[in-house]
## 1
Amino acid sequence: MASHAGRAVATEAALAAGAAARRAARAGITSRLTAGWHEAGGPATLREHLQRYGPLPQPGRNRALIDAVTAAGLTGRGGAGFPTGIKMRAVASRRGPAVVVANGMESEPASEKDKALLARAPHLVLDGAVLAASAVGADSVHVCLPRGRRRLAEAVEDAVAERERAGLDPVAIAVRALPHWYVSSEESALVHWLNGGEAKPTAVPPRPYEKGVGQRPTLVDNVETLAHVALIGRYGPAWFRRAGLPDAPGTMLVTVAGAVRAPGVYEIEAGTRVGDILAMSGMAVDAGPVLVGGYFGTWHHAEEVAGVPMAPGPLRAIGASPGTGALFPLPADCCGLAETARVLAWLAGQGAGQCGPCVFGLPAIADDFAQLAAGRPKGPVLDRLDRRLGQVGGRGACRHPDGAVRLARSALSAFAADVRSHLSRRACLAAWRGQPRQGVLPVPRPAGDGEWL
Ligand SMILES: Cc1cc2nc3c(=O)[nH]c(=O)nc-3n(C[C@H](O)[C@H](O)[C@H](O)COP(=O)(O)O)c2cc1C
Ligand code: SF4
C-alpha cells in the first residue's frame, strides 16, 4: 500500500454519493477525527482546526483529564488496546517531570490511518499530546515519525511552528525522525533511540512509564489515541461514549484495502460489524479470507468474521483482535499462502537480531512457508512448522515473534484447503483461476542502509 497514500482518505469521497452515504450510516461511519478531511485536501491549519473543534481546553497538572479519559474508557489505538487512563495515571504517579512520546511511526504496512490522521489533522494529535503532557506533569513532547516520510514530518513541523507563533503550548514539542523497521516503533525501541541508542526494543522492566526518556517517567501513546484524548478533553467522557459499545467506546480509524472498490481510511464506531465495514467499502463478492488487524493479525473466512463487531472482546472470541484496525480481504486471484509467505519473510527481516526467536526462529518459519507456498516442501513441512511455531511463541523479548506466529498459524487454518493442494502438488484455488497474482499485501522495501541509529 506504499503507493496508496493518495487514496488513504478516500473515505468521505467514497461516501459522497447518496447510496454510499446510506450504507455508511448503516455501517457506523462517523466523523469525529475525520471531520472536514475531504473538503480540506491537506493538513488543517491551526485556524481551521480551532474553527472545527473549538479552543483547546486550558491544560493543567490535575487529575481531571486523567479521570475523564478513564471514565471515557479510551483504549490505545496502537495495537495492544491498553486502557489509556491507567497508563496516564501510572506516569502521573511517578516522581519528577515526565515526558510524552507520540508514536506516529505506523510501521504496520497494512495500515494507513496514522499517516492519514497526521497529514489531515496534525493539530488534533498535538492538542492531545499537550493535554496529556500537562495532565501527567511532562514538560516535553516527542512526536516520533519514520525517516523517509519527509512530507509528513514537514506537515507536523509546520503545525508545531504555527502553535509556537501563537504561543499556544506550555510544553516543548520536538518532531523526531527514526530509522524505520517494524520493531523500531515498539515503545521501548522509541525510548532507547530517544536516549541516544539504537531503535531496538529493550528488555522490560523498567517499562517506559517507570524509566523512559532521560530516565524520566514516559507516556508513550499512539497518535490516534492522543487525538481522542484531545476530543475527550474538549467534550468529556459522556460525549465520547455516545459512539461505540459500552465496553469498547468511541470511534476508531480503520484501513480497508485488498479486494474492495473503495480502499482507504474510514472512521467507524467501535463495534461496527466487520461485514458492514467491508460491504461499505465495496468488497468483491468473490473475495477470499480477510486479514484482520494487520501483520500481527489473523486470517478469517468472510462468513466467520462478517457478523463480528470490530472491537476487542467480540473479535477475541474468534481468536482475532482489532490490532491496528486494518482489514484486508484477499482478492480471489491471489494465493493466501504465497502472500503470507512474503509477509513472513519480511517480518523475519525486521527483527532486531537480539533474541533467538528472531535470529533463528522467524527465518526458518518463513523458509518453511515459502516451500509450502511454492508447492515444493522439503520433508514433513507441516510437522516442522508446528514444532517451530510452538518453540518461537512467547520467547522473544518483545511481541514481534508472537505476532508472526499468530499470522502463520491463522494462515494454515484459513487456507487449509490450499495447504492440502500445495502439499499434493495440485493447483490451489487461485491457480485454478489462472496464474495467481502476487504481491497484493504491501511489503516495504528493506530499510536502505540497514541503520538502526
Ligand atoms: C513490533 C511492534 C511494533 C509496534 N509498532 C507500533 C506503531 O507503529 N505504532 C504504535 O502506535 N504502536 C506500535 N506498537 C505498540 C507500542 O509498543 C505501544 O504499545 C503503543 O505505541 C502505545 O500506544 P497506545 O497505548 O496509544 O496504543 C508496536 C509494538 C510492537 C511489539
Ligand atoms: S524478539 Fe526480536 S524484535 Fe523483539 S527484542 Fe528480541 S530480537 Fe528484537
## 2
Amino acid sequence: MKYLEVAEAKDLPGLRLVLTAFVPGPWGESAKKILEYKQIPYAPVAQYAGKANEALVAWTGIRNAPNAMYDDEPPRTGWYDILMLAERLAPERPLLPTGSEDRALVLGISSEICSEWGWGWARRAMMGTPFAGTPDPARVSALSKPPWGPEDSARMRTSYSASVGGPAEAPARCADILRMLAARLHRQKAAGSAYLVGDSITACDIYWTVFSMALEPLPHEVNPMPDWMRLSYEMIGPVIEAANDPVLLAHRNLIYERHLSLPLDF
Ligand SMILES: N[C@@H](CCC(=O)N[C@@H](CS)C(=O)NCC(=O)O)C(=O)O
C-alpha cells in the first residue's frame, strides 16, 4: 500500500485513514475492510509502530492507529467511532441492523472482539509471554527484527498493558470469547444463516474475519506479514487451542470469499 506522510495528507479534503504502515494491525485492517465493503474512498496515511510520530500527534493529537480524519471533523480512533463514520458516509451498504436488539448484538459482539480487554487486546497482552507457549528456538533465531527499539517497546507497553487483566488472565478471556463466537455460529447455521447476527453481513462478521488472524494468520501468499509478527500471531497456547473450533476459521474464509478482497494490502 502506498502511504502518504502526514505533511502530504493533513490539508487534503475528505477521508484520510491513519494506519500502522507495513503491518496488518487488526484494528487498522478492520477499518480498511469496512471502508472497502462500503466502497468509501480514503487516503492512507502512515503511522510508524511504536515511534513518537510527532507530526501525527501535532496534526491529530493521537500517536497510534487507526485514526480516521474526515474533513475538519475531530479524529476518530476507536473502532466504534470509525464504524459510525462509515455508516454515515455509506448508509446504502449498512453494516449495522436497524432493529435495536440485533444492533445491540452486533455491537456487543464487536466489542468483545475489538474493545479494551476484548479478543484482540487480550491476545496482544499474552503475545511473547510464556502463556502463549514456547517458540521453536531455531525458528526464533531465523526471524527478522521488529522495526522498533526498547524505547518504542516501552511506549507501546504504556499504551496497551494496563487493563482489567494481564498475560496470565488473557488465555481464559480469549477462550471464552471464542466459545461465544463458535456457539453463535453453530446456532445461526442451524437456523439457516451464514452470519453471526441476522441473515446478512454485519460489522461483527468483518471484525471477526480480520481479528481471526490472531487465531491463525492467513497464509503468506495472501498475507505477507513480517515473520516476527506471524510467529506471535500463530502462538496461541493450550487454553485457546482447546477452545478453537473449525467453525471459526470457516466463517473467516466464507466472509473473505463472499465479501472482501485478498490478498491483504498493507
Ligand atoms: N484505538 C483502537 C486500538 C488501536 C490499537 O490498539 N492500535 C495498535 C495496533 S496493535 C497500534 O497502533 N500499535 C502501534 C503503536 O502503538 O505505535 C481502538 O480502541 O479501537
